[in-house]
Amino acid sequence: MEVFFSDRIEDGRVILSEEESNHCTRVLRHKVGDEISVIDGEGTLYMCRLIRVGKESEAEIIESVSSWHSHPYRLILGVCPTKNNDRFEWFVEKAVEIGVDEIVPLIGDRSERKVYKKERAERIALSAAKQSLKGAVPLIHDPQSVSSYIMAAPSDAVKMIAYCFDGNKISIKKALEGAPEGSEIIVLIGPEGDFSPAEAASAISRGFIPVHLGDSRLRTETAAVTAAEAVYFNFMK
Amino acid sequence: MEVFFSDRIEDGRVILSEEESNHCTRVLRHKVGDEISVIDGEGTLYMCRLIRVGKESEAEIIESVSSWHSHPYRLILGVCPTKNNDRFEWFVEKAVEIGVDEIVPLIGDRSERKVYKKERAERIALSAAKQSLKGAVPLIHDPQSVSSYIMAAPSDAVKMIAYCFDGNKISIKKALEGAPEGSEIIVLIGPEGDFSPAEAASAISRGFIPVHLGDSRLRTETAAVTAAEAVYFNFMK
Q: Which of B82, B89, B94 to mutate to test the interface with A (most CBs of A within 10 A)?
């Protein structure tokens, strides 16, 4: 199944951008009258019929499916980008396949990467959402500091910070137990050099649960995917 | 912590191969008298002192730790290599970090990749085991057909086959419930085109439990990592 994306959907019509139109009508050779599937990135799938093919193309909506292939929780992953950008982008692709709603690139006290450009991650998130047939495309936030994100985090979410240095921690599995469907869950994953004790202390004082991800020693990007899997399995029947 | 590998350990001595010796003594500049850590790939870590530096180097064993950073289960992942080899090698790296004992490259009825060379995967498994501080390096098997692997699979293991087409399946999470520590667990993951119904039927007739990996649509390599995570979380306290 091939899925296209459009953020221009109104009056029962969908406009495909030049890029999506090119893929739909030139690469895949769709013609006027063909049925195509379009996501709005907000969670809805539209079954449409092409009515105009051109530089931009237009389709009329036949049917719509809301919360298409959504998951029964709301997950925000705050992750410090890795030195090797490919590894972070791999995490973005995998987290989208498994299920994530927002990704916040975080710059920590010990981050070697202090600057992060989100444009490539946004493209990867869109193509992973289309490939894994999800109506919603996760939001990639602008990078921000760990300390400012901790201060801004909502108080009613299940909030966790995963770090490696010693401290009183429980497993992410235990921390998730009993979280009802629909919970908003926030997990923070540090850089290669880990969070600083000051960052961890600040998070804990703001209601973040200090967690570990089990006995295996995981790279930053593996830890971030493992956090997404922990939430995925917590809600799996 | 830097870990070296040697398969030549006898009489209280460890011999580092030319490649490991070069990394230890030229790249990292270790000298006679330095303490180094060496894994045998079978599960044991040896704390050693360098006693001879050369093309090959030699170290005497001070102390050994068996089952070093092992996991409380035995996991065999039978996975059909992806068209894009990078994706399969990424799975190998991640599965080793999370915890796996054997990886069996499988060629299914619908595999687009009918040939697989395991040498690169073996190197990736070794470096991932060293990087994630595991004493044991997973065994990468020679590729074999899905049907022959199903016939040869041990009868006393918890055996599962994950496929996408309809059928009477339970989640991998449910299938793992109650498996005691030390269990041998086998999970089969099909190619992009999925297993054939004949392969699934044959597996089921041989005691494989048909499982799904949840509601998300996962790429082959993501499904394989998700299976490793399912087992990891099943045994997490």
A: B94
pLDDT digits (tens, 9 = 90+) for A59-88: 999 999 999 999 999 999 999 999 999 999
DSSP string, A51-102: EE-SSSEEEEEEEEETTTT--SSEEEEEEPPPSSHHHHHHHHHHHHHH--SE
Q: Which of B216, B219, B237 to mutate to test the interface with A (most CBs of A within 10 A)?
A: B216
**Short-list A103, A172, A171, A162, CA closest to A136:** A103
Given 3-state DSSP classes, what are the helix, strand and coil percentages for chain A, each rounded to the nearest 5? 30, 30, 40
Nearest to B157 by CA among B187, B181, B185: B185
Upper half-sphere CA count for residue B175 (Cβ side, 13 Å)? 25
pTM score: 0.96
* Token duo for residue B233: 């979380």
Flag whether residue B181 sits within 8 Å of chain A, measured between CB atoms: no
Query: What's the Cα-to-Cα distance from A103 to each of A92, A99, A110, A118, A143, rounded to whole Å?
Result: 8, 11, 19, 10, 10
Under an 8 A CB cutoff, do A69 and B216 touch?
A: yes
- Provide ipTM, 2 decimals: 0.95
Contact with chain B for residue A215, Cβ under 8 A: yes
Of A82, A90, A125, A86, nearest to A107 by C-alpha is A82
**Taking CA B164 as the corner, what is the angle to CA B162 and CA B168, rounded to the nearest 5 degrees?**
75
Q: What is the DSSP letter of B23?
A: I
